[in-house]
Amino acid sequence: MAADKASNNIYADFKAQVNMTATELKKWLATDESNSVGQDSGDGTSVGHKSGERIIEILNKKKADLTEADEAHMHKVHSYISRHLAQGPEKDVEHSRWRYSLMNWGHDPLKK
């Protein structure tokens, strides 16, 4: 990963927003709830589900081993989570498609 200020900022933003561990995310992606949400990427798997798989790869890497492609995906994840956090439902968050979608992107809004 490029060692400039923008790279460090996106890494920090990504780490702050992705509040699920690689293990938690892998377990989540195997659920029916995970597979029930998101826009189809064209092969029957949602864009968010594919993103979650990519996030697991990134979480399992050392910071020094991150590539420009990883950095680009971290930026995409940060943008998605930021945008969707502003659109949350006012009630029944726990079982909402909104939460399930965010969790596919590595963020559980109910996790403290």
TrEMBL record:
UniProt-listed InterPro entries: DUF3140 (IPR021487)
One Pfam short name: DUF3140
Protein name: DUF3140 domain-containing protein
Organism: Hymenobacter qilianensis
Region (Disordered) residue spans: 31-52
Superkingdom per UniProt: Bacteria
Amino acid composition bias (Polar residues), ranges on this chain: 32-44
PANTHER family the UniProt entry points to: DNA-BINDING PROTEIN (PTHR40630:SF1), POSSIBLE DNA-BINDING PROTEIN (PTHR40630)
